Amino acid sequence: MAEMIKLFVNGNEVEVEAGKNLIDAIGAVGIEIPHLCYHPALGADGNCRMCLVGLEEGGPPLVPACKTPAAEGMKVLLDADHIKKIQHDVLEFQLINHPVDCPVCDQAGECSLQDYYMTYDGQKSRMTVPQVTKSKKMDFGCGVVHDQERCVLCGRCVRFCRQITRTGELGIVNRTDTARVAIFPGRPLDNRYAVNVVDLCPVGAMTSADFRFKQRVWFMKKERGVCHGCSRGCNITIDHNREKDQDDLIYRFRPLFNEQVNGYFICDEGRLSYRDENENRLTEARLSKTTISLDRAVTASLKEFKRAEGIVILISPDCSLEQMVSIKSLAEELGAPLSGFSDGYIKKGDGDDYLIQDDKAANRAGLTALNIDSSQSAFEEALAKAGLLINFNNDLSLFYDESSLKKLFKEKRVIGVTSRDTKLFQMANLVIPVASFTEYSGSIINCDNILQTFNRAITKNDAPLDMSEVAALLGGPLKTNGDRYDKLKKIVVSLNDFNPDTIPATGLKLT
Amino acid sequence: MEVKILSAKFDIEDGHKLEIAKQHGAYATIDKLFSMKPEEVIEEVRNSGLRGRGGAGFPAGVKWGFLPKGTGKPVYLAVNSDESEPATFKDRYILVKDPHMMIEGIIICSYAIGSHDTYIYIRGEYTSQVKALQAAIDEAYEAGYLGDKVAGHDFKLEVTVHRGAGAYVCGEETGLLESIEGKKGQPRAKPPFPAVAGLYGCPTIINNVQSIASLPFILEKGAEAYKVYGTEKSSGTHLFGISGHVEKPGMYELPLGLPLLEVVEKVAGGVWKGRKLKGVIPGGSSTPVLTPEEAKTVTLDYESMAEHKTMFGSGGIVVLDETVDMVKLVENLIYFYHHESCGQCTPCREGLGWMLKIIKKVVRGEGEISDIDLLSELCDNIEMKTVCVLSAACTMPVRSYLTKFRHEFDAYVSEGASTAEANQE
After folding, report:
1. Partner of A345 for a Cys bridge, out of A361, B9, B366, B424, CB 3.0 to 4.6 A?
2. Domain check: are B125 and B220 in the same one?
3. Nearest Cβ partner of B341 from A50, A172, A175?
4. Closest by Cβ to B349, choosing from A62, A127, A177
5. Summary count for chain A: helices (H), strands (E)
6. Is residue B51 part of a domain?
7. CATH classification at residue B255
8. Model confidence pTM above 0.80
């Protein structure tokens, strides 16, 4: 627990965390100090001047809250008339050259300028002279589109590229009101985290080419999620919407702050992985290319089990712990060897020293925790002896090319339990659709051994089953989440003291 | 009225050359300097009452005393030679006419504050001046006044000239530091002050050329001899650049404390062409204007200027005769400061551009009374809300014209553009 200090805001005593600046310290107890340029991940710059506050007794009468550490006994003035006037005046300056094109701006609804205007300004424009004109819809690369006229020159994007990615593609050129954020000619954004500048931008100056004009933000529902793009498990906000007569679709992933996992950011690849949740989904069961009902698919599967001379079960390293334990129990029930072979998920050298990991599997640590063998030899030996492969969403095509797969599956029956309608699963004799990771609740363990839970965010019109439920239908003994968790606790010792609802939202570091 | 302390060698032919300068006493204080302790030097400067000649007038000795002790970091001296304030032309004389006086001052200051690296930040447009200065520095290195052993003493001193690229704001001391570091010249938020964390994060003293050049005299003759000139709180002499509508514009060295009008009359030959006085800008374009009435009582020192709600500034006095169109003057003023705003802080970046467009509208004869009021309000809304004082350097004088010559602005509104033409005739 951080050290607490007492200070006064508008004469009222509040207890805040020591060692933070006034914006964060006072903000933590629910008192907003307006700011545009300050961002906790990027530090204080002090250029926007929105956060000027008064200090009674001692010190200069006017200080930028972003650069002022909270101190014991400090008397901060926020509601005095002269402070309110400054907030209003600075906002007026921000707005005089702003196009105020909110109706066609993607940021509308989540724009600091809009929000602050409603809170701190709310007056008619006094600008009777022509505005400054600058460039619009500039392609900054990496799917970032820049509008210089909307820009408030807070420099968050510039600082992000200097401090976080250390690639420095962006800069502010020119002085005075002709200052603008720019790239060097022919040197666009070129880093794997570039689209974070869109989230960082407090206004609509940076927009995502991918998201532009797709949805008004106030129509979308926001749910917490955990990215399954690699073993980092970055926390995300899933923005989705069910438009009239359409399915529940995801429009974007945005980073969600989690100090011990991903901080404030996510990589661009993970951000765009929402597409896989919408596209190329397997929605109906198929037997030899004929669509069948789920019931028939289950019956057909059970027949296959009986007919098969030896079964091997393959599990995806993206599965949740609950799914893994369900499938493990099913394998035990069927007496089938279980493999988590997924070397194809590891892209050697692809990771960096920041968020991106070599291992593109979301829950490989889960395989290890549940003692599921992942070796290539064990998998291939087991498969050679078996007549039936049940593949729970493991993308073998990441490891084997098409001809190797054909060789591998020769004279085998294959049942695919999958969320994706890919070439690999089109090779299967029977496929059963299941929910993808935004559509079920579960828990996974990331590369740093942090256990994270997540809840179902999306409900499809024809909601496919959770893989655990499919495992149960196929004869797995764990029928409820309670069963699954009890079993999990028996295998993973460090989970003994926890239940799914007592695991902190920010994750649990396993020992 | 004129005195010759800083300008003593200005009239000597080739006085900028080391050989000639030495014949007239250059570097004569070096041996005395090294016989003193650094604290004694600081004490002497503090006693002399020398105040920063860059415009703010902060006591030099006191500033040096702010340096933290025992940080283990190098101490830097930055000499501010970015003389860019309109109507200011004093440092350039030192750079060209007597650069060795400044180098001697740098040695004195460096020894006092324990610095072994000096950066001279010189205005980019000073192309001939930088040549003269660099030539003098080269001479000083060759003669051993700079380098590993300053004049044979166990003291190392390196001097580097850094040229600006044409930004007024780099004369602001932290903008200057950013520029030396190779970054965009944008002032830093203070605290921390440069004395604590300045150039490359190290303790740094920044002094104006004239302040540094005043040191050899103080060290040679002593604080008391310096205090003979000037007033009790504004001691010594100053290089005044007198320009505008006077018979004899030029650079004059005068003791502080003289009555402004007397100087205009006796030194600069009075308002030219027998015209009447309309106003006086006392110390560079950023200082609030004085009316003829106010000018009668003001004296050329920091205290009297403050009493008259203006500033001593850089000593760049501009005399305005009765033909001056104050509205156009303000347009020119805002144009300059808008152009020079670094664009960092919102109020200055956006506000000065707004003010410029409004004043242009007024000058075109399209303004309304509400525009004049808005100009005045914007001055309040911008001033002191920013990291540095560039915004105030614009709003303070503009406000003074708006208040003291409001009728001229109103005339532009009521009579339209014809006023401008009438004023021209």
Report:
1. A361
2. yes
3. A175
4. A177
5. 15, 23
6. no
7. 3.10.20.600
8. yes
